[in-house]
Amino acid sequence: MSAAPEEGLRRRRPVSAWVASNSSGNTGAVIERGFAVIRSQNWLVMVSGFFEPVFYLLAMGYGLGGLIGTVAGPDGRPIAYAAYIAPALLATSAMNGAIYDSTWNVFFKLKFAKLYQGMLATSLGPLDVAAGEIFMALFRGFLYALGFTIVIAVMGLATSWWALAMIPVALLIALGFAALGMALTSYFETFQQMDWINIALLPMFMFSSTLFPITVFPEPVQWFVMVMPLWHGVELMRQLSVGHFEASTAVHLGYFLVMSLLGIGFTTRRLRALFLR
Predict the structure, then answer these.
(1) Bridge-partner residues for 78, per DSSP?
(2) 57, 120, 134, 240: most buried, per Cβ within 10 A?
(3) What would the mean pLDDT of 149-155 be, rounded to a whole number?
(4) 214: number of Cβ within 10 Å
C-alpha cells in the first residue's frame, strides 16, 4: 500500500474511533422520544415563535418601510425595504427556534428532569444524545423557516427561485445555533443564568444588519458585527433571496459549517465529562 492511502487511513481512524466511543448508533431513540413529547404537547405553544418575525415584517417592513422606500440589495439594485428585511427575519426565526429549544428545553432536562443522566445510563452515548437533541431543535427551526418562507413568497418578497434554498440554509443556521446553544447551556447552573441568552440575542438581532445596512456603523463596530454568527446568516439569506452570489457566500456557509461541527463536538465532550466520569 502506498504512503498516501496509509496516511489517509491514519487521519480517518481517530475520527471513527471518537464516534464509536461516543455513540451506540441509536440517535433515533432520542429523536423518537422527542416527537412523542411533541405529540403530547400543545402545538400552539411550539409554533408561537413563528409569529414574532411575521409581526416584525408587517410593522417594520410595511409600516416603517413606507417612510424609507427602497434600499440597496445585495447586488446593488434597489429593493423594497420589506424585501430587504424579510430574509434577515427568516435567519432570525431559524436562530430563535433552534436556540430556545437547545437552551431552555435542554436546561430543564439537564438540571431538573435529569433526563440525560438516565439516557447515558443506557447504551446511548453522549453523541447520540447531543445529535438527537440538536435534531429536535432543528425541527423547530425548520417549522419556523418553512412557515416564514411561505409568508415571504405570498407577499412577493422573494425575487429569485434561489429563494427556495433559504429553507435548507435556514436549517444550517439553526444547526449552528442549536449546537452552540446546547454546549453553552451545559455550563449553566441556575435559571437566572439563562437570562444571559436574551442579553446576547437581543443586541445580536439589533446589530446584525437585520433592519438596516451594516454601513451605518463606524468601521470598528462593523468588524465586531461581522464576527457575530447572525450577521453571516442574514447576509447569506439576502444573497439567496435575489440570487446574487459572490466570494462571501462561501465564507458565510463555511462559518456555519465550522460552527456546527465545533458545537456538536463540544456538546458531546461536555455530556461525557458530566455523566460518564
Answers:
(1) 72
(2) 134
(3) 85
(4) 16
Long-range contacts (CB closer than 8 Å, 24 or more residues apart) made by 1-7: none
* All residues at 6 or more sequence positions from 200 whose CB lies less than 8 Å from its CB, including other chains: none
Which pTM does this prediction carry? 0.81
User: Can you tell me which residue has the cell 423547530?
Assistant: 140
Residues 6 or more apart whose Cβ sits within 8 Å of residue 227: none
Cα dist. 268→1, 71, 78 in Å? Answer: 35, 44, 45
- The yes-or-no verdict on residue 65 having pLDDT over 50 is yes
pLDDT at 43: 63
Residues in the chain: 277
Distance of CA 195 to the CA centre of its chain: 19
The three three-digit cell numbers of residue 54, written as one number? 411575521
- Distances 172 to 10, 60, 139, 177 between C-alpha atoms, Å: 29, 26, 12, 9
Give CA–CA dist 235/87, Å, rounded: 8
* Mean predicted confidence (pLDDT) in 182-196: 83
